[in-house]
UniProtKB/TrEMBL annotation:
<keyword id="KW-0812">Transmembrane</keyword>
<feature type="transmembrane region" description="Helical">
    <location>
        <begin position="27"/>
        <end position="44"/>
    </location>
</feature>
<feature type="transmembrane region" description="Helical">
    <location>
        <begin position="315"/>
        <end position="340"/>
    </location>
</feature>
<dbReference type="InterPro" id="IPR002549">
    <property type="entry name" value="AI-2E-like"/>
</dbReference>
<comment type="similarity">
    <text>Belongs to the autoinducer-2 exporter (AI-2E) (TC 2.A.86) family.</text>
</comment>
<dbReference type="GO" id="GO:0055085">
    <property type="term" value="P:transmembrane transport"/>
</dbReference>
<feature type="transmembrane region" description="Helical">
    <location>
        <begin position="240"/>
        <end position="265"/>
    </location>
</feature>
<keyword id="KW-1133">Transmembrane helix</keyword>
<feature type="transmembrane region" description="Helical">
    <location>
        <begin position="277"/>
        <end position="295"/>
    </location>
</feature>
<feature type="transmembrane region" description="Helical">
    <location>
        <begin position="56"/>
        <end position="77"/>
    </location>
</feature>
<dbReference type="GO" id="GO:0016020">
    <property type="term" value="C:membrane"/>
</dbReference>
<feature type="transmembrane region" description="Helical">
    <location>
        <begin position="201"/>
        <end position="234"/>
    </location>
</feature>
<protein>
    <recommendedName>
        <fullName>AI-2E family transporter</fullName>
    </recommendedName>
</protein>
<dbReference type="Pfam" id="PF01594">
    <property type="entry name" value="AI-2E_transport"/>
</dbReference>
<feature type="transmembrane region" description="Helical">
    <location>
        <begin position="5"/>
        <end position="21"/>
    </location>
</feature>
<keyword id="KW-0472">Membrane</keyword>
<feature type="transmembrane region" description="Helical">
    <location>
        <begin position="154"/>
        <end position="177"/>
    </location>
</feature>
């Protein structure tokens, strides 16, 4: 092995170890890139539509976001906060009622089975002892409450969360102001013969992220509207909170829609048990519409990710980066897929560009 090759491999290993040690900063920086890409995409659309300089379109974008956020804080957020608090408070009661329904169903089924052969007192006492070993509704409700409290305590480190949010927004705005300068800095880290190709790959990554963000935003809005209409027709309370939760969690494939179903099911179960089945059917129908109608029509230009790869990416990035890794698993998978396709498949396996240049 040549000395230059050995030094290159050593430098690569050291770089990977350094990045692993700074993985928390890396995921925050990637989140900043996501925000910068969103701002740049909106800015570019405004600039192309109105034919105005970029800095004017950027100012319009930031002012528009501030106005929309302010209106949301004044009008939507208070209503959502109160309804969400009520949702959280109703989950233990719903769990208790679900447990009581399960026990009653089990007893009714046992009575139906033993209709002609009623067990004696000894058998009944055995059944009673077995049922007593199972936690009752109150215990289950307390367990659910304790779990929610621990979960909230796990993610409620407000100080660190605010600092991380400030870091993400600040870096995102800095990148948005001079995106080409930051891109050129990244390209300088690439060997000179590959810089033109690297510039093209980064551009394709940016296009993939932009299409993903636009598609997810429109898809989440459609899901929120469908959920609000469906819950309103079924007469389920707390429509606004459930609709916003469904729209926000729709960003997280597979896991998000499943979690969003828990809240309306709890409300429906406390109202009328049959409504919980109707709500479950409603969410299944909406998710099928989103998966097979909305997403294909909106994201026809998006980088396609197989369901198995999506779940694998969510699992791996959650283990490595924590909850933020779960939230950013799909955009990271989109970027990685572009890199794999362009570098490993096109350049190394097909064109073998590196062996010809080095």
């Amino acid at each position: 092995m040549k000395q230059t090759s050995f030094l290159s491999i050593t430098a690569l290993i050291i770089s990977v170890l350094i990045l692993w040690g700074l993985k928390e900063i890396v995921i925050l920086f990637f989140a900043s890139i996501i925000i910068a890409m969103a701002l740049c995409t909106i800015t570019g659309k405004i600039r192309d539509f109105f034919k105005i300089p970029r800095w004017i379109s950027l100012v319009i974008t930031i002012i528009s976001i501030i106005l929309i956020s302010s209106i949301s804080i004044v009008i939507i957020i208070p209503q959502f906060t109160s309804e969400f608090q009520e949702l959280i408070n109703q989950i233990p009661s719903a769990a208790s009622k679900l447990w009581e329904l399960s026990i009653n169903t089990f007893l009714n089924f046992s009575e139906l089975v033993y209709k002609d052969n009623i067990p004696d007192l000894a058998d009944q006492s055995i059944l009673t002892n077995k049922l007593s070993m199972i936690p009752d509704g109150a215990s289950l409700a307390n367990a659910v409450t304790d779990s929610i409290t621990k979960l909230v305590g796990l993610v409620s480190n407000v100080g660190i969360g605010i600092l991380q949010l400030i870091f993400i927004i600040s870096v995102g705005l800095m990148i948005t102001l001079q995106p080409q300068s930051y891109r050129e800095v990244a390209i300088l880290l690439v060997p000179s013969f590959y810089r033109r190709r690297a510039r093209t790959i980064l551009l394709r990554c940016g296009n993939a992220l932009s299409s993903w963000m636009a598609g997810v935003l429109l898809s989440s809005i459609c899901v929120a509207i469908l959920v609000s209409i469906g819950l309103y027709i079924l007469g389920i309370k707390l429509v606004i909170a459930n609709a916003l939760i469904a729209g926000v969690l729709n960003v997280i494939p597979n896991v998000g829609p499943t979690i969003s179903t828990i809240f309306p099911l709890s409300v429906a179960l406390l109202d009328t048990p049959w409504k919980s089945l109707a709500v479950l059917g409603l969410y299944i129908i909406i998710q099928n519409i989103e998966s097979y109608v909305i997403t294909p029509s909106i994201m026809h230009k998006q980088v396609k990710l197989l369901p198995g790869l999506t779940i694998t990416a969510q699992f791996i990035f959650t283990i490595i980066f924590g909850p933020l890794g779960l939230l950013l698993a799909i955009p990271m998978a989109v970027v990685i897929q572009v890199f794999v396709k362009e570098i490993i498949i096109n350049d190394i396996l097909e064109k073998n560009i590196f062996s010809t240049k080095i």
